[in-house]
Amino acid sequence: MSDITPLPSLDHAYRGGPETFEALRSRIRARFETLSPHLQRIARSALEQPNEFALRTTVSIAAELGVQPSTLIRFAKEFDYSGFSEMQRIFRHRLIEGAADMREQVYATQAARPPADLSILLNGSIDALAASLEELRRTVSVSELSSAVSMLEAADHLYIAGLRRSRAIATYLAYGLARSERPCSLLDFGGGMASQQVANMKSTDLLVAIAFPPYSEPVVDVVVDCHLSGKPVLAFTDSPQSPLAKHAKLAFFVDNASTGQFRPISGAIALVQAMVSGLGRAEVRKAPS
Asked: Would you give the end-to-end CA distance of the chain in angstroms?
């Protein structure tokens, strides 16, 4: 067998040079659903934390993700790289080549940008939130809302999972449930106890999971753990293709606008308010005939 390293395939190399990070990211997203669970875990981390992929060693990345270093190599080969080190160069080039250019671009844009019209920004934010609420009004199923209220009411204990922009929704839900005197707990991702909390859940408990793209890996992991152990999941997410929706007993699709610097959470907040307000009211739990 020859010791010569083969040239990169045309699938990830171009006549003008090696594959760009954006091109690789697009391929990972396109292939995500076809990957095994371990490779999906690596893919999520690559998409969400590209700097970590660029700067850390193979061993430390594998340890962080709970996989073997050989699994990282297999992941790279899935995308036609000879090994993980070759793929890692794409992430490093993104930092080396992009940092200075990005700083210059930001400075140039700021210098040329006129002072912000705060009234326009305010109205734009209000319009985005209102649009999300109107979309919820058009698409929410009263029958499914009734089922969700019944799930919340029947659970012995409610566990709530949400990170990043979903953390505000999770915290608001916990607040509403506590005010309604319902036993509930926010999963302790920061303290590293979330997986143990899920392991301690009973089949009569309920996990309410909230996540939007890019789906937070720790939230996806606890949802999968609950599903595999037969514990029910109620999800707030963006689409039926979401990893939360695929493992949930019931899922609501809200706040899925893809434009704007800050995506709205108004739809999810309104849904939380409706669910919590419906607790203890037998008449609202009856689906219309």
From this structure: 71
